[in-house]
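We modelled each protein-ligand pair independently. The example shown here corresponds to the guanosine-5'-triphosphate entry; the chain sequence is given first, followed by the ligand as SMILES.
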Amino acid sequence: MRTKPQSPLINTPSLAGLALAVALLFDAALSIQGLVPEQASLFPALAHFLDTQIAERLHTGTALIAFTSGIMLAISLILIPMQRVYRAREAQLLRERERLEAYNAELAQQAASDGLLGIANRREFERVLKLEWRRAARERQPLGLLMIDIDCFKRFNDSYGHQHGDACLRAVADVLKTAAARPGDLVARYGGEEMVVLMPHTSLEGANRMAERIHTMLAERALSFPDSPVAANVTVSIGVSSLLPVRDAKRATLVKLADEGLYLAKEAGRNRTASVPHLRLLHSADDSETWASREHRA
Ligand SMILES: Nc1nc2c(ncn2[C@@H]2O[C@H](COP(=O)(O)OP(=O)(O)OP(=O)(O)O)[C@@H](O)[C@H]2O)c(=O)[nH]1
C-alpha cells in the first residue's frame, strides 16, 4: 500500500542545529540557482544572523533532516562564529589591498620618471605642463620654463666614456633639483642631455634668476671637464621663457620659446642664459586680456 509522502521535516534540537538547518537549506537554494556565495547577497545576511545569534562562543549541535524519500540525515556540527572568520579575512584583504596600492604607486612613479636620472621623464613633463598651463590660465599667473643643455657633451662622452657621461648627467639633474626647490617646480629630462624646469607662478625675470642660480650652483659643483672649449668644468646653456596663458597663447609656444632661447645661448658662446624677444600676454586692470608690448631680453 502506498503511503502518503511525508513532507520534509527538520528536527532542530538546539540553536546550532537550527542554524545548520537554515544554512543547509540556504546552501541548497543557492546550488539550485547556480549561485556562489560571493554572488549571493543573502549570504552575508545569514552570516550576520549567525554571528549575532551565536555571538563569540563555539556551539555544537545536531540537525536531523528527514526527506520525503524516507532518507534521514543526521549531522553533528561545531559552529564557529563567522565574525572571527570574517575579521581575519577582512584583515588579510586589507593587507593585500595596501600591498597592491603601494605596488601601483611604485609602478606609476616608475612610468613617470627617467630611470637614469631619477627625475620626471618627457611624458610626465607633457602631462604636468598641460595641467599647469590650465591652472596658470585659471589663476592668471605666468608659467616659466627653462630648457637646459650640457655644453659640448658629445666631447665629454668621447673623452671620458659614457659611464662618466651618465654620472655627469645625474650630477646636473641633482643641481637642477636642488635649485628648483618650490613644491610646484618640476625638473624633467626632455631628451638626450636636455633637461627642463617648469615653474608655476614665475615671470621671465624670475625664470632668469633661477637660470643664474643654476649656473652658479653648477660652477660650485666644479664637475671637471678639462677638454671643454668653454671652461675647465661642466657648464650648461639655458633657454628661458615665460607666458601668461590667456587668449590664443598655446603651451607649445612656451616650449618653443625656451628652445629658441637655448639655441641663442649656444650661438652666443654657451655657458649662458638667453631668451628670445616674444609677445607677452598681459591683462589690464579691468581683467580683459590684451596683447601687449614686445619684450627684448637676451
Ligand atoms: N652618457 C650619455 N650621453 C648621452 C645621453 N643622452 C644623450 N647623450 C649624448 O649627448 C650628446 C649630445 O651631443 P650634441 O647634441 O651633439 O651636443 P653637444 O656635444 O652637447 O654640443 P652643444 O650642445 O652644442 O654644446 C651626444 O653625444 C649623445 O650621445 C645619456 O643618457 N648618457
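Residues 82-112 form the longest helix (31 residues).
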